[in-house]
Amino acid sequence: MKISKLFLSGSGLIILGGIGLVLIKQFQPATDTGVYWQRGFKINRLQTKQQEIPTNLKQIIVDVKGYDLTIIPTNAKTGHIKRTAQTRNYPKIRLSKGVLKISNAAKLTGYQLQFGRQQVSKITLKIPKNKQLQQLVLKNKTSNTNIKQVNVKKVTLQINKGHLVIKNSSIKQLAGQTVKTHLKISKSSVAQMTLASNNSNVALDTIIWHNNSQVISQASNISLNNNRVGGYSINNDNGIINVNQKIYYNLYHSIESGQPILKIDNNQGKIKLKT
C-alpha cells in the first residue's frame, strides 16, 4: 500500500491524529486523552457532569460494567448525580416517573487510540438523608460499589466479579446473588435477607437482624462478626466452622432465642463466626 493511501484511510488518519496528540501532551501532560473513529474523528477526554435528581425519586436501577459507584447521603433537600468518565465510555442516565436508570454507554465500533491510562468511570449519587427509596437494583460486573447511610425498602443484587460495601444503612429486604464477589454489609439494620453466593467472600459485620435470613453458597468464605441475632444454624459441607476460635466440622447450631435465626448453607469454604 502506498503511503499516501495509508494516510487517507481510517487507520492512517488515526495515526496522524495520535502523533498530533502525543505532541500536544508534551505541553499538557496532565490530560489523559485519546482519539477514536466513529463516523468521523472524536476526542476521548475525561469529562465531569452533574445533574439534580427529582424529589419524587423512588427507584434506582444500576446496570453497569467496570464503573465505580458511590451512594451517599446529603443534607440538601434534593439529590444529585455526578458522572466522571471519558467521552467514549460516558454512562447513560434516564430519569422517568421517579425511576433513575444508569447503564453503560452504547457499545461503539471503530478504531481507538488512547494515550495514558484510561480512567475508570465514576458515578456518585447523593440522596437526601431523610429519603427512603422503594427499591435499589444493582446489576454490576467488575465494578466497585460503596453504599453508606441509605434507607431502602428493597435491595436486589446481581453482582459478578465485583466489590460491594454497604455500611450504616437500613434495609427492609435484601435478595439476590453474587459470583466471585467481595460483599460486606456492616453496622446496618436488615429486616430480612436471602442471598445466593458462589465463589465469593461474604462479610456480615455488626448487623441488627429482624427476621429469619439465609445465605446459600458454594465455595465461598463467610465471616460473621458481632451480629445481633437470636441464633445461628450453620452447615458447611467439606469445610470447617471457626466459632470464637473453636473449631467445628460441618455443623454448628446455637439458638439463643426464638427469633430471628441466621441460616448459612455453604459447601467448600471457610466460615468464621465471632459472637
Textual characterization of the structure:
By secondary structure, the chain is mainly β. The protein contains two helices and 22 strands. It has helices spanning 3-8, 10-25, and strands spanning 33-37, 41-53, 59-65, 67-74, 79-86, 92-96, 99-103, 112-114, 121-128, 132-141, 144-148, 151-160, 163-167, 170-179, 182-198, 201-209, 213-218, 221-225, 231-243, 246-255, 261-267, 271-274. The protein has a seven-stranded parallel barrel with strand order 15-16-18-22-19-21-17. It is globular. The model is unreliable at 1-8 and 21-31 (pLDDT under 50).
Order of helices and strands: HHEEEEEEEEEEEEEEEEEEEEEE
Record the strand order, biggest sheet. 15-16-18-22-19-21-17
**Which strand-content bin applies to the residues?**
over 45%
Using only C-alpha atoms, the radius of gyration works out to 24 Å
Question: Quaternary status of these chains?
Answer: single chain
Protein name: DUF4097 family beta strand repeat protein
InterPro entries: Toastrack_DUF4097 (IPR025164)
Pfam family, one: DUF4097
Give short descriptive properties of this protein.
mainly beta, Toastrack_DUF4097, 2 helices, 8% helix, 7-stranded parallel beta barrel, disordered N terminus, 275 residues
